[in-house]
Amino acid sequence: MTSEEKTIFKKIIDGEIPANVVFQDDLCLAFHDAFPQAPVHVLLIPKQEIENVDSLDDQHRDLAGHLLLTVPKVARLLGIEDSGYRVVANCGKDGGQSVDHLHLHILAGRPLTWPPG
Ligand code: 5GP
């Protein structure tokens, strides 16, 4: 894959563009969203390139579990575990996905309305 084909998140993983990192381990990376939609808006991504939730299959079982189990760790680092938060995975065109690398939005810091737009 050439550099031009990399997603913005792959470039962050590869250290080619900066990000405000909250947490990382061997498998995943959490960093603040550049265009926050709430007072706290962090993105949690796998370091492995996976397009979106719809691309997940049995080979990703451990990684998908790890990603979800990392959410409460990140929430504690952000201090939002008591006030609460929302976890969102936009998928595909109608899901509003704009970056084709699987990511979980972690949103907090204000009451979030439902249903989403
Ligand atoms: P999506 O719309 O695909 O669900 O979410 C992509 C998210 O990536 C958006 O919330 C957008 O603000 C964020 N984003 C796009 N480019 C960058 C960037 O270069 N750095 C960071 N930290 N976030 C980005």
Number of domains: 1
Secondary structure tally: strands: 5
- CATH architectural label: 2-Layer Sandwich
Runs in which pLDDT lies below 50 for 5 or more consecutive residues are none
Question: What share of the residues does DSSP label as strand, in percent?
Answer: 15-25%
Task: Give the secondary structure arrangement, pairings included.
Blueprint (H helix, E strand, L loop, with lengths): L7 H6 L7 E4 L3 E5 L7 E7 L14 H18 L7 E3 L3 H4 L8 E5 L9
Summary of the model, kept short:
Helix content is 24%, strand content 21%. It has 117 residues and is an alpha+beta fold.
Task: Explain how this protein is built.
By secondary structure, the chain is of the alpha+beta class. The chain has helices at 8-13, 61-78, 92-95; strands spanning 21-24, 28-32, 40-46, 86-88, 104-108. It has a single domain, classed as HIT family, subunit A. The chain has three helices and five strands; from the N terminus they run H-E-E-E-H-E-H-E. Strands 1-2-3-5-4 form a five-stranded antiparallel sheet, covered by helices on one side. A hairpin with a 7-residue loop joins strand 2 and strand 3. The N and C termini lie far apart (35 Å). It binds guanosine-5'-monophosphate (5GP). Guanosine-5'-monophosphate (5GP) is lined by residues 8, 19, 31, 33-35, 43, 90, 96-99.
